[in-house]
Amino acid sequence: MLLVLCVDLDDDLGRKTGIPTPVIGADDVTEAAVALATADPEDSDVNVLFQGVSVHDELAAEGEAVEVAAVTGVDGPDVKANRAVGQEVDRVLAELSTGEEVSAVVITDGAQDESVLPVIRSRMPIDGMRRVVVRQAQDLESLYYTIKQVLADPETRGTILIPLGVLLLIYPLVVVANLFDVAGAAVLGILSGAVGLYSLFRGLGLEDTVDGTAETVRNVLYTGRVTLVTYVVALALVVVGGVQGVDTVDVVRSAQGSPLAAGTAVAAFVHGFVQWLGVAGVTSSLGQITDEYLAGRFRWRYLNAPFYVAAIAVVLFAVSGFFLPAAPGVTALGLSELAMALAAGTLIGVLSTLAFAVAESQLPSAEPV
Fold first, then answer.
1. Which long-range contacts (C-beta less than 8 Å, at least 24 apart) are formed by 108-112?
2. I need a labelling partner for 284 at 20 to 30 A (CA). Which of 134, 147, 172, 318 fits?
């Protein structure tokens, strides 16, 4: 007996029509093809199903003992899809149960579906394979439609547009690297760079990410999230702290009168920067705690965050000051003062942890949602 086997590796038939698979019999396969064509007329698997019915009818007219069936995989990795097809082929063979040897003619719509051939061959001989290729008009409108479909398909655009974007970015990078003085070359570099960035933008699907980010920011503004303000303030404090750190390095260099060693320069930068960083951390954590409270998700242990930030800031400030010489704006610490600062930082962290653990066990707080 000959089995005409229509293969839909990514299960377009099941996903788009809801028809359970495998589908066995010429009438049922025809109904499935019509249903898939109604759901998505552009799906190439429609042609696979109709081709399978056509081959079945031709062989049946010649007196061949023939049956047609459609099997599907899953929309996922090839290995998983191939296994699903193998299971459906087993079900088809079990339902046929003719007692005679069954061989197959496999109908597919492309090379990807043909990866399942070894799975089918392990269950029955394959007498032939036919790939269905749809003829398209080779005019400008068809070309435009094809390009539009490529840009809309995430898998295809990621495969084609990303390499194209990289190639288009090569020339502007050469322009920047060599600093050409020819105005025309610079303009050409800017234009090709813009096209390259656009291709990468579309190829990576960043439009969805940008839209999602804009929607998130919009929701934050409309819902009155305190963190929006505190994060902006924290960012400003970090920038000021960076400037203060650089100024501290200059002050220590001037006081020492010679170039600083790498360790001393790092210590000076941390000494000037960590105070502002600590304030930024406390500010942002207080904003987050406020939002959690307003949303009904407050837990007492959340209050540990600003105390932990303060403890870390105290430790870093003391350790960096221990390695610095006395200078204007620098708090140079001795060994005993460093020990006291380290002890203070440790106590702040331990006591806050214990206090809020006790508070959480004794006082009610909102259950997290």
1. 108/7, 108/9, 108/48, 108/132, 109/44, 109/45, 109/47, 109/48, 109/133, 110/44, 112/9, 112/78
2. 318
- Bridging pattern class, strands 103-108 and 126-131: parallel
Instruction: Enter the tokens of residue 259.
Output: 């170039």
Cα angle for residues 267, 269, 272 (degrees, 5° grid): 105
Matching residue, tokens 């610095």 = 324
Q: Are 89 and 116 in contact (CB under 8 A)?
A: no
The residue among 298, 299, 302 whose CA lies nearest residue 285 is 302
Q: What is the pTM assigned to this prediction? A: 0.43
| HSE value, Cβ hemisphere, 13 Å, CA-based, for 111 | 0
DSSP sequence for 131-162 = E-------SHHHHHHHHHHHHH-HHHHHHHHH
- How many CA atoms lie less than 13 Å away from 217 in the CB half-sphere? 8
Q: How far apart are CA 201 and CA 209, in angstroms?
A: 10
Tens digit of pLDDT for each residue in 249-271? 888 888 877 777 888 889 889 98
| Rounded Cα–Cα distance for residues 1 and 17 (Å) | 30
Which contiguous run of DSSP H or E holds residue 24?
strand 23-24
> In 10 A of CB 281, how many CB atoms?
21
Could you read off the pLDDT of 28-45 as tens digits, one per residue?
999 999 999 999 888 888
